[in-house]
Specification:
Keywords: Coiled coil. There is one protein chain. The protein is of the alpha+beta class. Among the domains are: about 45 residues, no CATH class; about 80 residues. The chain contains eight helices and four strands.
Length: about 270
């Protein structure tokens, strides 16, 4: 209680109140494995926790004390090291072998479990199995054991194959990653070439136009209303081309009529 605190009044345990009245509290002096001395000063009415005092420092609070104990809980300490007065009273009425079982059970963290009771329970179970009437049960157990052993042997036999396949899967995953990267690079290169191929005719036309422009002589002076005059000339040119096309169509029509014309030679002779 000096190490982990006094129980609350609501808990159904012996509070060990002072005979002549007063408050619970005290001083517990301890020695660590390193040889360091320290004192624990605790008062039940003080809610700030215990005082941990050494030759070089003094701290207050349960957290400082827990750090010294390696943060072991109260339950761990009770199971491993502590006996209550009620447990000591029970132990006095037990035989030597049962006392040893209780001590071992506490040291193993078993609480109030007795090793002698566990031993008797095991003897009882073994007797039920190995008695003549338990032969059928033994056969079933042996069949289960053989089945499990076969499964273990099969699993062990497949373990090497599993490791081999696992290694192969890892290698294939690495190769897959490398191939994915190569495919991505090739697709990017393909897109670049496709873009170049698509724009190649346009680039050729631009270069040809630039070459033609470079061959044009520089005009020192541009005539007045040159753009308007050029537009009129272009219109006149288009009109002339249309007239030429109409004359050609008329000429073609005359040629057709001429070929279709029938000449009466007899009539011409008379």
């Amino acid at each position: 209680r000096m190490m982990f605190g006094f129980p609350k009044k609501s808990q159904k345990v012996n509070q060990y109140q002072p005979i002549n009245g007063g408050s619970l509290g005290g001083v517990l002096k301890c020695v660590l494995a390193s040889g360091q001395l320290f004192s624990i000063i605790r008062e039940a009415e003080n809610k700030d926790g215990p005082i941990v005092r050494t030759e070089s420092f003094e701290n207050r609070g349960q957290s400082h004390l827990d750090s010294i104990f390696g943060h072991a809980t109260k339950e761990i300490f009770m199971n491993l090291y502590a006996f209550t007065i009620d447990e000591l009273h029970d132990i006095q009425s037990l035989r030597g072998e049962e006392i040893k079982s209780r001590v071992y059970g506490a040291g193993m963290g078993l609480g109030e479990v007795s090793l002698s009771k566990i031993e008797k329970e095991l003897d009882k179970n073994c007797g039920e199995i190995f008695k003549p009437r338990g032969m059928a049960r033994i056969g079933m157990v042996l069949n289960d054991v053989n089945k499990i052993e076969n499964e273990i042997r099969q699993a062990q036999g497949n373990l090497e194959k599993f490791d081999e396949l696992n290694g192969m899967a890892s290698r294939l995953d690495k190769e897959k990653s490398v191939l994915k990267k190569e495919i991505g690079d090739l697709e990017l290169t393909k897109k670049i070439y496709e873009t170049r191929l698509e724009f190649f005719p346009v680039v050729i036309e631009i270069l040809s136009a630039m070459e033609e422009i470079s061959r044009i002589e520089n005009v020192s002076s541009f005539p007045e209303n040159g753009v308007r005059k050029l537009h009129l000339i272009q219109l006149e040119k288009e009109n002339l081309l249309k007239r030429i096309q109409e004359e050609e169509r008329s000429y073609d029509g005359l040629k057709i009529n001429l070929r279709n014309m029938v000449v009466n030679d007899d009539l011409l002779e008379h």
